[in-house]
Design a protein that fits this description.
CATH topology of the largest domain: Rossmann fold
CATH superfamily of the largest domain: NAD(P)-binding Rossmann-like Domain
Distance between the termini: 61 Å
Number of domains: 2
Oligomer: single chain
Radius of gyration: 20 Å
Bound molecules: nicotinamide-adenine-dinucleotide
Shape: elongated
Largest sheet: 5 strands, parallel
Strand order of the largest sheet: 2-1-3-4-5
Mean pLDDT: 96
Strand content: 5-15%
Helix content: 40-55%
C-alpha cells in the first residue's frame, strides 16, 4: 500500500481520495479551502498540517486542481518538500503547455511525473468508474496504474508528457461540437413538424448516432439518465465545457491550426454561459441554439 499526498479536495478530488483510502492506501490530504478540508475530514480522510506536510513522506502525490497555474504553483512548493523519486500524478484538466512544464519541473527536481486527466464526472469519481488518459514515461505509467485502478475503470496510456491532456481536450472538442449539432437537429425537427421521439428513433439507429444523442440527449424524456430530464442540473456544467473548449482553441492556435468548428463551439458556449447559464449542464445549450435560431 502506498503513502499518498492528495492535494485538491473539491467535487472530484474528495471522492477520488476517498476511493484511494478505501483501497487501503495511507493518505495525507490538503486543500487551501477550509470548507473542502472540513468535508474531507467528515468523510474520514486524514488531513495534513499544510501543503508541504501532505507530501513530506509521500511516494505518490496526486493533484486535482482547477487550472494549469494552480498546478504549477503547487508543484513549485511540493517538489522541494517530497522525498526524491516520488511520482507526481496530476489529474486536473489543464492546458498542454502547463502540463509539459509540470513534467519538466518534476524531472529537474528528481521526481517522476504523469498527467492523467479524467472523464466521467463527479458520478464516475464517486463510483470509481473514471476513465484516465495518461501522458508520461512508460515507467511512470506502470507505477501509477494500480492506483488509478482504485479510482477508475479504463486507464489508457496516450503517449509522452502532455498526451493525456491532449486526449482530454480532443475528446471534449468532439463532445462540445456534437452537442451543438444534436441540438440544432432537434430545433430544426421541431420547426419541420417532426416529433422529437421520431427523430430520436431514427437517428439513434442511423448515421447521426453519437453519445450526445443516445446517452445525454438535450431533449427531455428520451434518454433515462440525461440531465435534460432534471431541468439541466449538472452533470457537466456549461462553465467546465467552456473551459475545455477554450483549452482546445488555445492548443489549436499554439499548433498553428485553424479549427472553425472548435472556435464556433467555444463562442456559442461562451455566449450561453454569459447569459446566466454557466452552472447549468452543458446540454442546456439547446436553449441557446433555439433562441438564436428563432432570432434568425
Ligand atoms: P473544484 O473547484 O470543485 O475543486 C478544486 C479544488 O482545488 C478546490 O477545493 C480548491 O480549493 C482546491 N485548490 C485550488 N488551488 C489550490 C491550491 N493551491 N492548493 C490546494 N488546493 C487548491 O473542481 P473539480 O470539479 O473538483 O475539478 C477539478 C479538476 O478536474 C478541474 O481541472 C476540472 O476541469 C476537472 N474535471 C472536472 C469534472 C467535473 O465534472 N467536475 C470532470 C472531469 C474533469
Amino acid at each position: 500500500m502506498a503513502r499518498i499526498g492528495f492535494i485538491g479536495l473539491g467535487n472530484m478530488g474528495l471522492p477520488m481520495a476517498g476511493n484511494l483510502a478505501k483501497a487501503g492506501h495511507s493518505l495525507a490530504c490538503f486543500d487551501v479551502a477550509a470548507g473542502a478540508e472540513q468535508a474531507a475530514a467528515a468523510a474520514g480522510l486524514s488531513l495534513a498540517a499544510g501543503l508541504a506536510a501532505s507530501v513530506h513522506e509521500a511516494e505518490i502525490v496526486f493533484t486535482m486542481l482547477p487550472a494549469g497555474s494552480d498546478v504549477l504553483d503547487v508543484y513549485e512548493q511540493a517538489l522541494g518538500a517530497a522525498p526524491p523519486g516520488a511520482l507526481f500524478i496530476d489529474c486536473s484538466t489543464i492546458d498542454v503547455g502547463s502540463a509539459r512544464a509540470a513534467h519538466e519541473h518534476a524531472g529537474r527536481a528528481g521526481m517522476a511525473a504523469l498527467d492523467a486527466p479524467v472523464s466521467g464526472g463527479v458520478a464516475g469519481a464517486r463510483a470509481a468508474s473514471l476513465t484516465f488518459m495518461a501522458g508520461g514515461e512508460a515507467e511512470a505509467f506502470l507505477r501509477a496504474e494500480p492506483l488509478l485502478a482504485a479510482m477508475g475503470r479504463r486507464i489508457v496510456h496516450c503517449g509522452g508528457p502532455g498526451a493525456g491532456q491532449a486526449a482530454k481536450i480532443c475528446n471534449n472538442l468532439i463532445l462540445g461540437v456534437s452537442m451543438i449539432a444534436v441540438s440544432e437537429a432537434f430545433v430544426l425537427a421541431e420547426k419541420l413538424g417532426l416529433a422529437a421521439d421520431r427523430l430520436f428513433a431514427v437517428a439513434s439507429a442511423s448515421s447521426g448516432q453519437c453519445w450526445s444523442l443516445t446517452s445525454y440527449c438535450p431533449v427531455p424524456g428520451l434518454v433515462p439518465a440525461s440531465p435534460a430530464n432534471s431541468d439541466y442540473k449538472p452533470g457537466f456544467a456549461t462553465r467546465l465545457m467552456l473551459k475545455d473548449l477554450n483549452l482546445g482553441a488555445a492548443a489549436a492556435s499554439e499548433a498553428g491550426l485553424s479549427l472553425p468548428l472548435a472556435r464556433k463551439a467555444a463562442a456559442l458556449f461562451s455566449e450561453f454561459a454569459a447569459a446566466g447559464h454557466a452552472e447549468e449542464d452543458f446540454s442546456a445549450i439547446i436553449k441557446g441554439v433555439r433562441s438564436r435560431a428563432s432570432a434568425g
